[in-house]
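Quick one: structure tokens for this chain, please?
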Amino acid sequence: MPDAPIIRIEGATKRFGQVAAVDDVSLEIRANEFFALLGPSGCGKTTLLRLLAGFERASAGRILIDGEDMARVPPNRRPVNMVFQSYAVFPHMSVAQNVAYGLRVSGVPRAEAMPRVAQALAMVRLGGLEERRPDQLSGGQLQRVALARALIKRPKVLLLDEPLSALDRKLREEMRLELVRLRHEVGITFVIVTHDQEEALSMADRVGVMDHGRLLQVASPQALYEAPSCRMVADFIGQMNLFCGRVTAVAADGIVVESELGELRFAHAGRDLPPAGTAAEVGIAVRPEKVTLSHERSQAGPIAIRGQVVQLAYLGDASLVYVETETGRRVTCRRPHQRGAGPPLAIGEACWLAWEPADCLLLTS
């Protein structure tokens, strides 16, 4: 039986003048879940997080945390704590003093606070650094201090606003693993805001994708990647080749689409066609890793397009090959580096792209 929702957002809207930064968002987040809000800059994800924290007040709708309406609950009385992008660590205080700060202002006696400080520092693997100052710490250590300070008050929900964006790539990868470990260890709900799709997919149990204040899709990382609900999600999550199509028939055994790739058939399951019905404009999408590239045309069956290599990007374990088709369309192929894979491609070289029709995704919005 799944955990009950600890956060329930009902039609939340936040307007700044005529602009709706958050636009009629409804969402449930379960207890002990690692949930990510993902989207481009300015999509409303940080504003939604600030509504949860109480730093902004909703223009409409309700936010409930652990069953209680937060409309009249100030930030310092909410069962949440927030970790900011900038760490917000006090430079004149030691590590231990920074971590103990929230307990001190809450009136917790020193005799009770110090064991909790030691426990929190051990949890984030900073034991032995109690007396260091912030200017003696690395970026990753500063982030751990901020985490310990947030966790020491034992919130029911930890809110994280782009917490890893200031770290270098290797440190970000290490901190992702640490955050996942911490969530399991402390047993509370984590809600993270990020614009980094890799960050969201690698850490979260579920991801909500936002754009222009709207919540477009909520799903597990795998479902989000394999079955995006619309073109924006498909294009934002990973890389995607997008083609245009038109519905020509809706039959008992599926939806027939005529496209630049030829006639394709898709199952009905879970699809809502636009009001235009059988004249609906739709999108066809295929991931670059589903596309194979060769010097000769593949056997009959798969979709095949002739083109010319126009750009190459070496990624280490694979290369991205950008091919311009005879119609002027640019298609991306992710080509793994394997022993015996044949001679490398060169810019200007003619080639064939191919993939199975089953690897195509139908996007109706």
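The domain at 239-365 is CATH 2.40.50.140 (OB fold (Dihydrolipoamide Acetyltransferase, E2P)).
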